[in-house]
Amino acid sequence: MRVRPRPSTIRIFLADGTPEGLRIIEKSNWSGRGFDFARADWTKVRTRPDFGKPAVYVLLGPADDGGDLVYVGEADEVRSRVNMHHAGLDFWTRAVVFASKDENLNKAGVKYLESGLIRLALAAKRASLKNANAPGAPFMSEADQADAEGFLEEMLPIFPLLGLDAFEVIAAKAAAEEVPRLHLQGAQSSGYGRDTADGFIVEAGSIARPTETKSLPPFVRGIRAKLLTEGALAADAAGLKLTEDRAFSSPSTAAMVLLGRPANGRTEWSDSAGRTLKAIQEEAAG
Questions:
Q1: Rounded distance between C-alpha atoms, residue 148 and residue 145, angstroms
Q2: Band of the pLDDT at 284, cuts 50, 70, 90?
Q3: Is the predicted pLDDT of residue 177 greater than 90, yes or no?
Q4: Looking at the predicted structure, is the pLDDT value of residue 203 above 90?
Q5: Sign of the C-alpha dihedral, residues 166, 168, 170, 176?
Q6: Contact, 193 vs 200, CB < 8 A?
Q7: Which pLDDT does position 249 carry in this prediction?
Q8: Residue 91 reports pLDDT greater than 90
Q9: N or C: which end of the chain has fewer CB within 10 A?
Q10: Could you tell me which of 91, 110, 1, 2 has the C-alpha nearest to residue 51?
Q11: Whole-number pLDDT of residue 171
Q12: What gap in Å lies between CA 141 and CA 19, rounded to an integer?
C-alpha cells in the first residue's frame, strides 16, 4: 500500500527527558499510540498499562551489511511477548510498539497489522527480515478490516520519523517522473536512477561492475553480496544486471554498488544535459 499524504500533527514525547530514552508517539485524530525504546530500558518501561493490551511490535538490530535487521510480531498482551524476546532473542537493540488508546484494536486487528508490515517489508527490501514466515491476513468482517487498514495507514508515516525505513516501498516510476532521471557510466558499469524522498532509486537493468577494488568500503561489499544472494544482481553478458528497482541510502552508495569502487555520487550521477547531481542541487538551492 502507498500512504495517502495528508497534513497531520505527530507529537513525540520524551518520557524521561532524553532523546535516547522512551519516546511516546501520538498523532492528531488517531486512536493509536506508539512507543520507541531501547532494549536496555525494557525492564523499566514494561509496567506501562498500554503493554497489557493487544499490540503490534517491531524489534530492530544491526545487520551484517550495515542495514537494519527487523522482526515484526503481534500479541494479545504484548508485555509477555516482549518479555520472551528480551530473554530469548539476542539480535535486537531497540523496539517500536503500537497499541490503541481505546479498546478497538483486538487480536485479529494486530494480526492484520503484523501481516501488513511483513508484506511491506518484503516488498520494500530495505531491511533484513528476521521473520521465518509471512502470515496471511486473518479473516475479518469488512468493517473491521477497514478499521485495521486505517490504523496501518496512520502508523506508516511514523516509522521514518523514528529512523526506520523498512516499510517504505519504492515509489512507482510514474511518481518519480517529477525528479530528473540521472545516468552513471563507468568501467563495465552503467545505470539510471533518481534522487527521491524514498532514497536514491536505481532502475532495473542497470549494470554493475562484476569485480571490486580493494578500497571499496566493507559496507558496500556487504550490500553487493546481499543483492547477489537475493538475485537482485544477476550475471549478464555486460556484467551484473540489476533485476529490479532498488533504493539505496544515498547517491554515493548507489554509485559505489554499480562502479565497484569508492565514489562520490553527487559527481558520478548526471542528467541528460551533463549536469552532475551536485550542480543540480546547487542550482535548486539558488
A1: 5
A2: confident
A3: no
A4: yes
A5: negative
A6: yes
A7: 85
A8: yes
A9: C
A10: 110
A11: 60
A12: 40
Instruction: Give the integer Cα–Cα distance in Å for 277 and 194.
Output: 10
pLDDT tens per residue across span 143-165: 899 999 999 999 999 999 999 98
Q: What is the DSSP string of the chain?
A: ---------EEEEETTSSTTS-EEEEETT--EEEEEEEGGGHHHHTTSGGGGS-EEEEEEEE-TTSSEEEEEEEESSHHHHHHHHHHH--S-SEEEEEEESSS---HHHHHHHHHHHHHHHHHH--SEE--S--PPPPP--HHHHHHHHHHHHHHTTHHHHTT--TT-PPPPHHHHTTS--EEEEETTEEEEEEEETTEEEEPTT-EE-SS--TTS-HHHHHHHHHHHHHTSEEEETTEEEE-S-EEESSHHHHHHHHHSS---HHHH-B-TTS-BHHHHHHHHT-
Radius of gyration of the chain measured on its C-alpha atoms: 21
Q: Which residues are CB-contacts of 268 (< 8 A; sequence separation ≥ 6)?
A: 184, 186, 251, 252, 255, 259, 276, 277
* Amino acid found at 149: E
